[in-house]
Amino acid sequence: MIKPILLLGYGNPSRGDDALGVLLLERIPAACLHSVELLTDFQLQIEHALDLKQRQLVLFADASVANTQPIHFRQLHAVIDNSYTTHAMNPASVMQVYSDIEKTAPPPCFLLTMQAVQFELGDGLSAIAEESLRQAVALVEKLFAEPNLTTWQAYTRA
Question: Where in the sequence is the domain holding 61, given as residue range(s)?
């Protein structure tokens, strides 16, 4: 049986703060995961569109150098772009592929980015990334405690 919520964390665990998306999944307490499927990968691929099938909510998690705050949480909308022709896609493009394949809108999808500053091969997490991860875990625990669209949308405005 497919669980109603998907948490898809992505990044390279060997490249310092790029590991944030993957590490988030490891730090979520098991008690929060009864209706959640966890999925990790190095980067988003066109095939991830199929992972959106039969979900009620989807949460993508990634590191970001663009964040000016430890975490940023927002709702996504499908976007047509050319990233499907590359080795890495963005979440909005994955949503568009889903729409193209399934001929229907994807489930509500959200992106949680965590502030990241170092990506060298072999680096550990920076202090900034550790704080971002701590705040991200706290937010995800709240989201999974109230897994409904209205609540998640309210957190995008918080």
Answer: 5-156
